[in-house]
Structures are given as C-alpha cells and as structure tokens.
Design goal:
This protein is α/β, with parallel strands linked by helices. The protein folds into three domains: about 160 residues, Nitrogenase molybdenum iron protein domain (Rossmann fold); about 160 residues, 3-Layer(aba) Sandwich (Rossmann fold), CATH 3.40.50.1980; about 35 residues, no CATH class. The protein is about 45% helix and about 15% strand. It has 18 helices and 15 strands. The strands form three sheets. Strands 1-12-11-10-13-14 form a six-stranded parallel sheet, sandwiched between helices. The chain has a six-stranded mixed sheet with strand order 2-7-6-5-8-9, sandwiched between helices. Strands 3-4-15 form a three-stranded antiparallel sheet, with no helix packed on it. Strand 13, helix 15 and strand 14 form a beta-alpha-beta unit. Helix 6 crosses helix 8. The chain is globular, with a radius of gyration of 25 Å.
C-alpha cells in the first residue's frame, strides 16, 4: 500500500506535478455529472452552466440545483444570528471550548501581521502606499464528506482582523437534510458572524460572484473546496477577486533517523484521510526509518475510520522516497513546494534555509501538521499543487488592497514633466505628451 521509492522512481511518479484541474476526470465525477445534468459534460461545462443559471435566475436557480445536486430542498437560504447563537449550546461544551481557543489563537496570530502603510517625502512631495480593506468578502466553507468548522475560523478571522465590514459565509446543506450541521453554525457564532448562507460548491461561488435576491455580491471569494468549487472560482475570476485555486491537500515529511516512526506514520495517515486525491510523502535518507514507517502505516491504518480513503490515497499519491542524504531530501521538498512541509530531523535549523518553498513549515515533531489544521494560529488555507513557489497562506493582506499615493510638489512636477513628455512621444502617445507639455507652458 505504501511503497518505498528511489529518488529517480519518485521523480517520475509521486513527485511529478500534474495540474489537478486538467487531470483525467474520475468516473465517479462523470457519473455525478450525468445524474445531475442528464448528459455527458466536462466539469468545466457543468460549472459554466451552473454559473450562468444562477446569474440569470438567482435564488430560484440555487434552490433547484441544490435539490438536484444534494437531494436537499434548501429553504430558507439564510441562517440568522439567533440560530447561529443557539447552536453553540447544542454542541458538547468541550468542543465549544476547543473552537473558542482555536478562534482566539487564529485572531492573535493574525493581529501580529504588519500592514506596511508608508509615505516618504524624499522624492519631492509625498509618495507612498495606503492599505484599505476590501468592502465585501465571501467565505466558502466546504462540507464534502465532513463538516469543517476549522476552515470557517481560518478564513473568516483574517478578514475580520483586516477590517472587512461585510463578510458573507456560505456552506453546503447537511447530508441528512437541509440543516447545516450545528458545529458549522457554532463556529460561525464563535467567530462573530451574524448570518450564514446555505449553498454548496459552484452554486455558492456563483451567488457570491453575481449576487442573488438573498445572497449579496462580494468583492473577493476565499476558501478551499472541491473540483467544482475550484473551477467556479477560476471562471469568475476578474468579475470578483479570489484567494487562489486549491487542489487536493498534501503533506511532505522530511525525516532522519532521529524521527519517531509511529509519529511520522500518524502524520502521513492524517493527511491521507482527507480524500482519495490527498498526497502524503516521506523523504528520508534512512532506510531503517523508511521501513519502520511503512510497518507503522500498515498497523495504524487498520484502526482508522476512513481506512478505505487512506488506502487509495497512499497507494496512488503517497509513498516513501529514499534520498542520498538530508540535503537531497530538503531540495526535493522545496522543488515539490508542498502545502505542508514537516521537519522531523535532529538539525531542523540547518534544514529551514534549504526549503524556501512551502505553504507551511512545521518544525519539529511536536509542531505537527494537525495542530496547524486546528489550533496553532496561522490560517490552514495554504497554497497547493506546487503554488507555494509563488503563493502564500491566506492572511490579512488577502483582504486588503494597496492604493499608491502620488502628491508631488510643484518643483518636482515641473522637473519630471519634460521627462514624461519625452517618453510619451517615444511611445507615440501624443495626448499623454500633451498633458505634460501643458504643465510646462
């Protein structure tokens, strides 16, 4: 189930990056599309149809498609403040406490993020940049095979810290009826959200992008989701902003012979249980550790509730890579640019600088990735699919925009005007040049 690879074998298989959005569509997804639409459509075409219908018919389209997709009649589409508040009392007290601690730590972490607003008078007059929050943010909280209150906290709270005045949250209906699970409602209340909308996947993205009678149009959509959610975000980008395009979740563990094989195996299994496409990879120069982890994975998986999902995930997307040394393991980890990169090594400080590409860097076996999922503090919404080469975890700056400040004094304006005119004439833009020349007369 959990194979040991050479570096060469892994580079051609599990470490080979594919575009998850353009990969071959699993038969299960094809069957779902046929069931909902009554014909063979690509996922992109199916999403386009949903977006167009919600744009044209608003709430009516949301209700009809929710019935066809989820088998649930959603009415009303809005969950109000009173119902959110009472949900906290309907979940176990220890769970409510855990969610509150998580919310407090996420808020405390993001409160420390610097907002580099500045001006300078050293260039003639005043130049600088101003940060202002976006006005309306739409947060999508996936349901899928399990409710994810942690995703709500990790997405909503950075927006609140940024000062976004209007935050809308959407999540799918529960699998056993129209009701949203109490744990999601309670998380919304703990985060300080007043209203929540019941819409799933591409339908929620469409409602946020275009607005409906009930769900307000937003300026930016954030949050992870399944293939249809991600395709919908890609198609509405430009109409609204998005935080990123998230693929299946992934963890890379870099370990040496000091690592605890049972702990390493547990961390890999935790990642693999997310879904069939999740990736869990161990990079190590230690064959004894590799073999011990392989044995531990086999033992532990038998005790887990989502063993079937884990087995498929580890077989098709996971594995152990035997590297020549720790330097090669670090290089492979950085090249892969995983959402989560975990260091279970004696000299973690020596490895940190060798892995510039990682959505989150989890240093030491006590700083394991599951803590990052729930209670450590940073948002767990992180770049996937190798995008950690250029993208960042969701943070306060995702909910802010920069305006450049240009307020030149008269002398500097006079000095720069001839230079601007000269460049404008070179670009054959005479009206541009004219605007500068008029100031020179």
């Amino acid at each position: 189930m959990f194979k040991i690879y050479t570096t060469k074998e892994a580079s051609a298989t599990i470490l080979q990056r594919d575009n998850a959005l353009d990969a071959e569509v699993p038969e299960g997804i094809r069957n779902s599309i046929r069931r909902v639409f009554g014909e063979d459509l690509t996922p992109e075409a199916a999403v386009s149809r949903l977006l167009a219908d919600v744009r044209a018919r608003g709430d009516e389209a949301l209700r009809e498609w929710s019935q066809r997709i989820d088998g649930v009649e959603v009415n009303p589409l809005l969950v109000g403040k009173k119902e959110l508040a009472t949900a906290v009392s309907r979940i176990p007290p220890d769970l409510a406490h855990a969610l509150q601690v998580a919310a407090d730590r996420v808020r405390q972490f993001h409160d420390h993020q610097p907002i580099p607003q500045w001006t300078t008078g050293e260039m003639g007059g005043i130049l600088g940049q101003r940060f202002t929050p976006i006005q309306r943010a739409g947060v999508y909280v996936p349901g899928g095979t399990a409710p994810l209150p942690s995703s709500l906290l990790m997405s909503v709270i950075p927006a609140q810290v940024a000062g976004v005045p209007e935050i809308s949250v959407a999540t799918p209906p529960g699998k056993t009826g129209a009701a949203v699970p109490d744990i999601i409602l309670a998380a919304a209340a703990i985060a300080g959200i007043d209203t929540l909308y019941v819409a799933g996947g591409a339908l929620a993205i469409a409602a946020f992008a275009f607005g409906t009678e009930t769900i307000p149009k937003v300026d930016k959509i954030v949050g992870p989701g399944n293939l249809f959610t991600t395709l919908a975000k890609r198609q509405v980008y430009g109409i609204v902003g998005i935080d990123g395009l998230y693929g299946p979740t992934e963890t890379v563990v870099v370990a040496d012979d000091s690592a605890d094989p049972a702990w390493v195996a547990a961390d890999l299994l935790a990642q693999a249980e997310h879904d069939l496409l999740a990736t869990a990879i161990l990079l190590t120069p230690s064959r004894p550790l590799a073999e011990a982890v392989q044995v531990e994975v086999g033992k532990q998986v038998e005790t887990l509730s989502r063993a079937d999902i884990i087995s498929v995930s580890l077989t098709h997307n996971g594995g152990i890579v035997l590297t020549a040394d720790l330097d090669e393991a670090c290089q492979l980890a950085s090249d892969f640019a995983a959402e989560h990169t975990c260091l279970a090594v004696k000299d973690s400080e020596g490895c940190i600088g060798k892995i510039p590409n990682a959505g989150g860097l989890f240093i030491g076996e006590r700083s394991f990735e599951v803590l990052g999922d729930y209670v450590a503090g940073p948002s767990h919404v992180m770049p996937t699919g190798g995008t950690a080469r250029f993208a960042s975890p969701l943070n306060v700056l995702d909910f802010m925009k920069i305006s450049s400040i240009i307020h030149l004094d008269d002398a500097t304006s006079a000095q720069l005007s001839p230079l601007a005119a000269r460049i404008a004439y070179a670009e054959q833009l005479s009206a541009h040049a004219n605007a500068a020349v008029k100031r020179m007369e």
